[in-house]
Design goal:
Elements: H1 12-15, E1 17-19, E2 22-24, E3 42-44, E4 52-53, E5 66-68, E6 76-77, E7 90-92, E8 110-112, E9 136-138, E10 157-159, E11 188-190
Parallel strand pairs: 2-3, 3-5, 4-6, 5-7, 7-8, 8-9, 9-10, 10-11
Antiparallel strand pairs: 1-2
Length: about 220
């Protein structure tokens, strides 16, 4: 009735609040993800003390669509932790200590990794390329040196402010082989608070519906 045992002396749905397919475990002081009911679609574990996300944490949760671990102390995640989640669309991990991002399902629509310690080598090469439904990618306030490309055409919002990005390539957003290519969906790009003079990379923006927000020329 109250879901699986947590090992903390009470079932998950007494420690947390379970409503329909949503499990709310915000601000409970937990340092690990509890066993979740098999019909969980949305898991909220915000503002806790979770440091590590294990391969077994989301095992057999075939209906899981959203994971929110904002405001924890996550510094490590097992590589295969999200691989089997074929319905996952939202992964919200802002305000943690993450340096390495595991492989994610291609079903993602929203990824929020603001205010972590991500570096480019901690991202899978071409890790976002096949995410044909990805619309929102928030990577601000990390330690990224360049824009993680290629980006899917579905992307609408890309926030990269407050990183260490110093240059852009002609094909960061556009197609260098097709001058008629227009990236119609991507209307919100933030590059401010990077050591980057956006005026020096005009060829990187020719396919965009509007210019990125960036740092103006210093005089």
């Amino acid at each position: 009735l109250f879901g699986p045992e947590t090992g903390l002396g009470m079932p998950t749905c007494l420690l947390c609040v379970c409503i329909g397919g949503s499990v709310y475990c915000d601000d409970t002081g937990m340092d690990q993800i509890p066993p979740l009911p098999k019909d969980t679609t949305h898991f909220y574990g915000r503002f806790n003390k979770i440091r590590h996300v294990k391969n077994t944490d989301f095992l057999n949760l075939n209906k899981l669509q959203s994971i929110d671990l904002t405001g924890n102390q996550v510094s490590g995640m097992d590589e295969g932790v999200f691989r089997s989640l074929t319905q996952l669309q939202e992964l919200l991990l802002a305000d943690n200590n993450i340096q390495v991002l595991p492989e994610l399902p291609v079903t993602m629509r929203r990824i929020d990794l603001r205010n972590n310690k991500l570096v480019n080598r901690g991202l899978h090469s071409e890790g976002f390329k096949e995410m044909s439904h990805l619309e929102f990618l928030y990577l601000s306030s990390n330690n990224l040196d360049y824009v993680p490309t290629p980006l899917p055409l579905s992307l609408r919002v890309l926030h990269l402010q407050d990183n260490n990005i110093q240059s852009l390539q002609e094909d960061t957003f556009c197609d260098r082989h097709d001058r008629n290519f227009i990236r119609r969906n991507l209307e919100d790009i933030r590059l401010d608070s990077n050591p980057l003079n956006i005026n020096l990379f005009a060829q990187a923006y020719v396919c965009l519906p509007r210019l990125p927000v960036g740092t103006p020329v210093e005089k």
